[in-house]
Specification:
By secondary structure, this protein is α+β, with helices and mostly antiparallel strands. The chain folds into two domains: about 90 residues, Alpha-Beta Plaits, CATH 3.30.70; about 110 residues, no CATH class. The protein contains eight helices and nine strands. Strands 5-9-6-8-7 form a five-stranded mixed beta sheet, with helices on one face.
Length: about 210
């Protein structure tokens, strides 16, 4: 009998990422032999070509459940971040079981009648030494995450947005912050780098 995926997740893997990748049914059965045949038949520009190769390369580092419309992958923070970067346009969500990541959420709580911009529960203040502590790749990932899906996150601080885009000077506003929708939307921030967040302010609507 196969183990339940949640037991695998909570018992062995720290992160779970989900993707909506079309036509994943052709990956069955997900044996190396079948995936090799698929790679031979599929063009290199196909996402299925990349996914089959990713599964073969990292099979022993993760567990996965291929299904329609959402496929789920379980693995380490580093591997799931790599997968999110590789299949960015198909990524729909990520979850973590790391309790240390959630400790910052209780730093400050604000009771309000309306959430910031009508939808965001968390205001994330960046660390003043973030520019020296994150890589260019991490800066690009953070910028993409904060600007490509306003349902999850947004930047209202103009100087911070300019710096993250690569167009601004290094001396951006050290009190920079951005908003994220909910607790799940915070997870990718910590996955990108532990040096981004200084503190988080939570807004509770009453």
């Amino acid at each position: 009998m196969r183990k339940h995926h949640n037991r695998l997740f909570f018992g062995q893997y720290t992160h779970k990422a989900s993707f909506k990748i079309p036509d994943t049914n052709v990956l069955y059965p997900t044996t190396d032999q079948h995936l090799l045949k698929l790679i031979e038949m599929t063009g290199k520009s196909s996402v299925l070509y990349d996914l089959a190769g990713f599964i073969m390369q990292h099979r022993h580092e993760m567990k996965f459940r291929i299904q329609h419309p959402t496929s789920i992958f379980y693995g380490s923070k580093e591997l799931m971040l790599k997968m999110i970067d590789t299949f960015w346009q198909y990524w729909t969500g990520v979850t973590t079981t790391d309790p240390k990541r959630l400790g910052v959420l209780d730093d400050k709580t604000v009771v309000c009648r309306r959430l910031p911009l009508g939808r965001y529960q968390y205001q994330v203040h960046v660390h003043r030494k973030m520019p020296q502590r994150i890589t260019e790749k991490q800066r690009e990932l953070l910028y993409r995450y904060l600007t490509q899906n306003e349902d999850n996150a947004t930047i209202t601080n103009r100087n911070l947005k300019s710096w993250l885009s690569g167009q601004g000077a290094i001396h951006y506003d050290l009190n920079g912050y951005f908003y994220v929708r909910d607790e799940k939307a915070l997870t990718p921030i910590y996955m990108i780098s532990e040096h981004i967040v200084d503190h988080v302010r939570k807004f509770v609507k009453v």
